[in-house]
Write a structure and sequence with these properties.
18% strand, Glycerol-3-phosphate (1)-acyltransferase, two-stranded antiparallel sheet, alpha/beta, globular, 222 residues
């Protein structure tokens, strides 16, 4: 059972969630955003109840802005940092599902499956929350199998950005720069996929995300 928050912790959380959401709105409003192949996402949503949007952990800031107010479900760790992120994204219209590979992972994955089957879009970072960078974990393939939803590999980047000294080299785009979100062809996972097939799909998702990211890096310079 979690210990109750102190008054100072409550004040800090309140400040972070409100200021963080405001800064993302202001920063995002200044970007010149290009959504490449966005019709692919819309067409898939007309065929399925929802979709799974996959992008690398380092690039999550841009989708946090472009997907705002769409009630997308996203998995966020139960760490202290995760609490700040969860509170902030809720202000932007997301619904966090708390858990990660190291803590409450199975329960969180099951809840993501349930939400996907209920018709809500899902957002995932297959190399999160701790990496290795650009290496997809098998949870993305399991989520696609159990929810029956297609995974859309998304390449995300900004022309001018700061990369932090973190395990993922988390990217923060400059104000007024060009930002790109590229939606690439979907990956499906059979509902009968066994462990061997899931591993093949994990690699397929990883390669597709690497390709999407490479393409987005070229797109943003054009």
């Amino acid at each position: 059972m979690k210990a109750p928050l102190s008054i100072s912790e409550k004040v800090l959380l309140f400040g972070v969630e409100h200021l963080g959401a405001l800064l993302i709105r202001l920063l995002g409003a200044s970007w010149r955003v290009r959504l490449i192949n966005r019709d692919l996402e819309q067409n898939l949503k007309s065929q399925h109840s929802a979709v799974i949007l996959a992008f690398w952990h380092s690039q999550m800031l841009i989708p946090t802005y472009t997907q705002r107010q769409r009630d997308t479900r996203i998995m966020i760790s139960q760490s202290k940092d995760g609490e700040y992120i969860a509170r902030t994204v809720q202000r932007l219209g997301f619904t966090p599902v708390r858990g990660s590979t190291s803590r409450r992972g199975a329960q969180a994955l099951a809840e993501m499956v349930r939400q996907g089957r209920a018709g809500y879009d899902l957002g995932i970072t297959p190399d999160g929350p701790r990496g290795p960078r650009y290496q997809a974990r098998i949870g993305a393939a399991i989520l696609a199998r159990d929810s029956g939803l297609p995974v859309i590999p998304c390449g995300v980047t900004a022309k001018k950005r700061i990369e932090l000294n973190t395990w993922d080299r988390f990217a923060i785009p400059y104000p007024f720069t060009t930002a790109v979100v590229r939606y690439n062809p979907p990956i499906y996972v059979s509902p009968d996929a066994d462990r061997k097939e899931l591993e093949k799909k994990r690699l397929e998702i990883e390669k597709a995300l690497i390709l999407a990211q490479q393409q987005a890096e070229k797109d943003v310079t054009r």
